Amino acid sequence: MKVLVSVKRVVDYNVRIQVKSDGSGVVTDGVKHSMNPFDEIAMEEAVRLREKGVVTEIVAVTIGGQKSEETLRTALAFGADRAVHVKEEGDIQPLTAAKALAAVFKKEEGKLFLLGKQAIDDDASQTGQMVAALLDCPQATFASKVEVEGETAKVTREIDSGLETLDIDLPAVVTVDLRLNEPRYLKLPDIMKAKKKPIDAMSFADLGITPGAGLKVTKTSPPPSRSKGVMVKTVDELVEALKSKGLV
Amino acid sequence: MSKILIVGEHAEGKLNAGVGKVVAAAQGIGGDIDIVLFGDSLGEVASQAAALDGVAKVCTVERAENAKPMAAILAPQIVEIAKAGYSHVLFPGGTFGKDLAPRVSALLDVQQVSDIMAVHSASSFDRPTYAGNAIVTVEVPAEPMIVATVRLASFTAVGTGGAAAVEAKSVDASLPSHTRYVGLEAQRSDRPDLQSAPKVVSGGRALGSSENFEIIFKLADKMGAGVGASRAAVDSGYVPNDMQVGQTGKIIAPSLYVACGISGAIQHLAGIKDAGTIVAINKDEDAPIFEVADFGLVGDLFQIVPELTEKL
Ligand SMILES: Cc1cc2nc3c(=O)[nH]c(=O)nc-3n(C[C@H](O)[C@H](O)[C@H](O)COP(=O)(O)OP(=O)(O)OC[C@H]3O[C@@H](n4cnc5c(N)ncnc54)[C@H](O)[C@@H]3O)c2cc1C
């Protein structure tokens, strides 16, 4: 069974985001980037499914400029067999990304598409669901457990009211949540081996995609800052403070 | 003029409190506001939706397949209804809307707006990115339609003095059988719902075990508060996942938030930026949570929390 995993290069989750003073965006130059944490979990899950003998081939896919190749190499070090690089610069919106990913999935005749539940840069949480819609196949989002049995999968989803389980036919799209697994620590030999694995480059044009009009960001601003509060010394002081504000 | 369709979330005969907040966001856009509900027996929920102020019409689509909300099954039906002249399709921004809205967007071939937190006009909105560390203003093409989810913590629900007409609808869409509902392991509690509670007490990794977490529950019960947790507390198995507050958990806006033994990572803060008053209890005086707290108390929570419970 062939699994596709999409991986996105994003600003590292530990970076303190700085909004540019002219409101034109956030500072990304010279800032540490890494693979979207949820995509690492998707990669890890693919590798575990292969270790269980369910999966035979893992193909990592990214959409982005030259630098995204680093992210693909990380995916290859995790254990992807091959990678596909849809080489496109600039801001790529979820529906456009989904169209490219769906096209790659079709071309590869994949059985399962694993994606992170959201990218920690735009926080949109859209792409996986859109890929599923475009492929007209099942979707199971926010997965915390994935069990593949033959031509179906049982997926447990983390939703607001608890843990929901769906039974879906393959091919299917699954987006993963933080709790699904803990990604392994990459070992140097695997990182070296990844350098030799093949990456196919293609463009939107090769996939027959024309990005349409999308959302236009007209301004980026920092969130309203909270003013620094007061430190109290004792529980009594805290109780007094809360009482005086009418909160307790 | 805008014609807005809101997809109503509900469970067990109760309309989700978030729907009233989506109506508030829709009023910011302006125009006719309709709510559509999917289910297999919608009488109760329809009357709750009809009571929301500012709603013109409630449409119900009753069908056995709609008994549980599954995106693959609801999306084609929503598309059918939306195509009858709606300019906007809005969803509440919880997991229900996050799961469903993008599927609808893709079927309609439009880019979606996630987590509207402010409305500037019928086609311009603010939304958070980078865990709420940057707010972007977006201008969205109005044609053919705008699909969006609404960040619930940013809006106050409308009142319930309305009396909208309720209309049963049948939708002619073929539905897939590739997705089957197995079950829900719901976390039942008598405590106020985390997302709508005016007060929330949360615990972090510092609690150390689910037994120790009891002191958080006790404090919450004394205050009549909902209970939340950091990701670390959830990952360590002290409490269930649906209690997680933050970028990838629940975004909440209580008037009082009490963080006990939580460091204040940006991913956690993303969930509480709109809280009225934040109280932090932490033994590390340099914990980042103190940078956003209105009241900070440095000390061991195993002493402070029980003492606070007692003194309130
Ligand atoms: C992609 C991604 C998404 C994430 N999403 C979320 C999210 O939605 N929500 C979330 O919460 N986290 C999220 N995280 C995790 C986040 O980065 C932090 O790891 C997490 O919030 C830390 O939880 P904590 O503060 O409970 O634990 P810690 O960081 O371990 O902090 C524990 C705190 O307790 C204090 N303490 C210890 N003992 C005591 C005591 N006896 N009395 C008083 N204080 C004490 C310590 O001083 C410390 O400040 C995410 C991470 C990633 C990578």
TrEMBL record, chain A:
Keywords: Electron transport, Transport. The keyword Electron transport applies. Pfam families: ETF. The keyword Cell division does not apply. Residues 23-211 form the Electron transfer flavoprotein alpha/beta-subunit N-terminal domain. SUPFAM superfamilies: Adenine nucleotide alpha hydrolases-like. InterPro entries: ETF_a/b_N (IPR014730), ETF_b (IPR012255), ETF_beta_N (IPR033948), Rossmann-like_a/b/a_fold (IPR014729). CDD domains: ETF_beta. It comes from the Bacteria. Belongs to the ETF beta-subunit/FixA family. This is Electron transfer flavoprotein subunit beta. It comes from Banduia mediterranea.
UniProtKB/TrEMBL annotation, chain B:
Belongs to the ETF alpha-subunit/FixB family. Transmembrane segments: none annotated. This is FAD-binding protein. Residues 4-185 form the Electron transfer flavoprotein alpha/beta-subunit N-terminal domain. It holds the Pfam family ETF. Keywords: Electron transport, FAD, Flavoprotein, Transport. The keyword Electron transport applies.
